[in-house]
């Protein structure tokens, strides 16, 4: 029985589990010591003059590439599985976090990897991952990436690019992708998400970006959408999200609730906490959402009004929960009485008007 990672290179056997302190004392610390030796004279001089030690700039750091090595692979490889033909085995999981890596070229030889975590490094280029055609799961949070572009990976299902420097959503074409995390980047406009190529995408996380509108989400299979902590002032293009069940818009700049559509027949949970909605009557615009059951409106100006909960239930009788609390039976009774009283008042106003027309 053979144990390998690819036709190009045999996988090293992983070392036993080691504590995080020991991992950090390996290749990562070695690089720091080399840096110290190279600058010993300068630091000694600075110490004599009483000057504070300066942190290297981003440009200076980029002069010291840190490559992924066989030693790092030994520490991070796990999960021995059969390869495609079933006659050989390979390690299919790699975790190489917090290694200050700038270059992962060696990974292009490890074609059997399925689960890769390269978070908290200094990566700007992911092109070597294009060779990992069996990749199912990828996490590259906390790097220096400015783009999501990757060679199309036929089996990739989950990818996380959180807390990078990404400015757009172009170049995402993985046909089996189900979950996309772009939290904490610098994205201003959603573009390039082609429903023809992303037919299985059900969850998109875009919290903590710089979005001003919801436009650009042409994804009819999407079920969960997280857009909190942006600067959104307009709700656009939501009518295309016909399977959406969860919409998170907390901490944006919305003042009205225009933009919801009757085509959104599956939406059950809507979080609008921390926006600028002034008028309780804006909730009437949510009557087009037949499945809405949970609404979060706390920390909006309108939530300070005295009849806040009653008015919500008057306008949205199918609602089960407002903010953190489910509605009690007495609240439902009060809302029904208010609703009936308003119907009676409207009818009384209509009757004199009809009498005048008859005369």
UniProtKB/TrEMBL annotation:
Question: A GO biological process this protein is involved in?
Answer: flagellated sperm motility
InterPro entries from the UniProt entry: Leu-rich_rpt (IPR001611), LRR_dom_sf (IPR032675), SDS22/Internalin_LRR (IPR050836)
| Keywords noted in UniProt | Cell projection, Cilium, Coiled coil, Cytoplasm, Cytoskeleton, Flagellum, Leucine-rich repeat, Repeat
Q: Does the keyword Coiled coil apply?
A: yes
Where is there biased composition of kind Basic and acidic residues?
335-345
Stored SUPFAM superfamilies: L domain-like
* Domain of life of the organism encoding this protein: Eukaryota
Q: Where is the composition biased (Acidic residues)?
A: 47-62, 346-359
Biased region (Polar residues) positions are 1-10
Give positions of region: Disordered: 1-62, 326-359
What GO terms fall under cellular component here? 9+2 motile cilium; cytoplasm
Chief localisation class = cytoplasm
- Which compartments does it reside in? Cytoplasm, Cytoskeleton, Flagellum axoneme
What is the purpose of this protein?
Answer: Essential for sperm motility and male fertility. Plays an important role in the proper assembly of the third radial spoke (RS3) head and the bridge structure between RS2 and RS3 in the sperm flagella.
**Name of the protein:** Leucine-rich repeat-containing protein 23
Top-level taxonomy: Eukaryota, Metazoa, Chordata, Craniata, Vertebrata
């Amino acid at each position: 029985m053979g144990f390998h990672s690819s036709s190009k290179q045999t996988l090293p056997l992983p070392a036993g589990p080691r504590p995080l302190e020991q991992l950090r004392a390996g290749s990562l610390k070695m690089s720091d010591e080399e840096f110290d030796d190279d600058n010993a004279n300068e630091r000694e001089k600075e110490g004599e003059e009483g000057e504070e030690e300066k942190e290297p700039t981003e440009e200076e750091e980029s002069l010291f590439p840190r490559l992924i090595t066989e030693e790092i692979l030994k520490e991070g490889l796990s999960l021995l599985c059969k390869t495609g033909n079933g006659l050989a085995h390979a390690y299919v999981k790699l975790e190489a976090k917090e290694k200050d890596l700038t270059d992962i070229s060696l990974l292009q030889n490890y074609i059997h990897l399925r689960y890769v975590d390269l978070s908290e490094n200094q990566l700007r280029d992911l092109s070597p991952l294009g060779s990992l055609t069996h990749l199912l799961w990828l996490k590259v949070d906390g790097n220096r990436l400015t783009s999501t572009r990757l060679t199309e990976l036929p089996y990739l299902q989950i990818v996380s690019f959180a807390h990078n420097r990404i400015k757009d959503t172009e170049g995402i074409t993985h046909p089996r992708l189900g979950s996309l995390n772009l939290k904490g980047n610098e994205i201003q406009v959603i573009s390039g998400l082609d429903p023809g190529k992303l037919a299985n995408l059900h969850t998109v996380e875009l919290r903590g970006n710089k979005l001003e509108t919801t436009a650009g989400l042409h994804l009819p299979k999407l079920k969960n959408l997280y857009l909190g902590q942006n600067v959104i002032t307009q709700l656009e293009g939501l009518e295309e999200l016909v399977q959406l069940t969860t919409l998170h818009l907390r901490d944006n700049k919305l003042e009205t609730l225009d933009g919801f559509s009757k085509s959104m027949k599956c939406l059950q949970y809507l979080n609008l906490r921390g926006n600028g909605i002034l008028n309780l009557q804006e909730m009437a615009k949510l009557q087009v959402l037949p499945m809405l059951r949970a609404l979060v409106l706390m920390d909006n100006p309108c939530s300070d009004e005295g009849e806040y909960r009653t008015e919500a239930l008057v306008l949205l009788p199918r609602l089960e929960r407002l903010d953190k609390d489910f509605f009690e039976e007495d609240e439902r009774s009060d809302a029904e009485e208010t609703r009936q009283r308003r119907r009676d008042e409207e009818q009384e106003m209509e009757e004199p008007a009809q009498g005048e027309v008859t005369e």
